[in-house]
Amino acid sequence: MKPRDLLYIARDVLRDMLRFDAAADAVLSRWFRAKPQLGKTDRQILADTVYQVLRHLRLFQTLAAADDGIGGPMEVRLAILGWSGNAPSLHAALTPEQLEWRKRVLAQDAMALPEAVRWSLPEWLATALQAHYGAEYSALAQSLLRPAPLDLRVNVQKTRREAVLDVFARLDLPARATPYSPWGIRLEGKPALQDLTVFREGWVEVQDEGSQLLPLLLAPRRGEMVVDFCAGAGGKTLALGAMMRGTGRLYAFDVADYRLAKLKPRLQRSGLSNVYPVAIAHERDERVKRLAGKVDRVLVDAPCSGLGTLRRNPDMKWRQKPEDVAELTTKQTNILQAAATLLKPGGRLVYATCSILPEENGAIVDAFLASHPEFERVPADSVLRQQGVEGDDLVTQGDLQLLPNRHATDGFYAAVLQRRAPSARPADVASDVAIAN
Ligand SMILES: C[S@@+](CC[C@H](N)C(=O)[O-])C[C@H]1O[C@@H](n2cnc3c(N)ncnc32)[C@H](O)[C@@H]1O
């Protein structure tokens, strides 16, 4: 497709996306389906351009409003500023006037603008992050603007990380072991995974390194009864199933059928036979109640604002509002309480989110512990150490706290909780041996 035509498609996609009534990836997929004539490179440029605009939206809108020297609707000017093709395609896409305008606008000194504009954060979020992260706010805000790398998790049910790294080396695809997760591989580029045998055969799955640490905190053992309470498309379910070496029973609950449906092909590739997807109506569903007191370990990967994943989903910062976060915290509280009833005495629960807001994280766990004296917090650093994960900087006030500026992962939070055994010994994490290998 001619770059100039692509620029105007980007304008139309942005017009749709900036209504924020659907997730950006869903809007983009709809456009890809509507425009089958777009080639692979066209799609890449289109995706990179509109995501660049979503990341820097507040800055671009401010800059483009201050200098409207080329006229036309705001969406065209945003697409011009966000254009992410190479130099020849840029010159082919823009008129000389547009090129000149782009150069002039992007050369403006943004330092004079307020930080929240420079880092393209809505005011409420900038205020919340600044209040919680203090001196780290600036580094965090800037790290959220950078695109995320492509991380993979090696399926230990089928292979070892070294074997996959060897395959990538032979294919000349730059890749390296991730620093924290024992199963993680970080790729430099973004190869089409569907074309790779290692992917088709279930040796690897796409999963951010931070997300890989949550199953490690739950540390399920062979033969146990485990529930992934908010399993979605099963990113963490698959890792848990592999840690259990395909033994025991792993229930994958979720209220969204369509998300569980996406787990099915992944399960097939994974070679796991211990996973039981169950669609529940809500957290108090009869199918949940039937397992009360019978489960060894429960993962609650709670529905959240997703604000820790802005590198991948920059639209979330524009779609989420403070009142949505307030609604989510009620949901999180209810889900945590219901999930906790499943545990046997001595059982472990991990409460996790991909949010960086304290009200969805520590505040939920603190309130739960205050009203549930039969539970106690287990220090996440000791659990991680038992699992062979080094990194004291991963844990803040006893809980896992991952941030893109510190750990080059998405933002994740997780607390490890244990239901006290009747003998009421304090959390004896030392007796909790590392996963059977
Ligand atoms: C953060 S996502 C889970 C992502 C998933 N664990 C993964 O690794 O791919 C949260 C999930 O919670 C589900 N959910 C929302 N309300 C729920 C409820 N009341 N009970 C169980 N799951 C719920 C959503 O459908 C969504 O799939």
Automatic annotation (TrEMBL):
GO annotation terms (biological process): RNA methylation
Domain named SAM-dependent MTase RsmB/NOP-type: residues: 140-420
GO MF term list: RNA binding; RNA methyltransferase activity
Binding-site list for S-adenosyl-L-methionine: D254, D301
Pfam families attached to this UniProt entry: Methyltr_RsmB-F (PF01189), RsmF-B_ferredox (PF22458)
Active-site residues, Swiss-Prot/TrEMBL: C354
Family: Belongs to the class I-like SAM-binding methyltransferase superfamily. RsmB/NOP family.
Name of the molecule in the record: 16S rRNA C967 or C1407 C5-methylase, RsmB/RsmF family
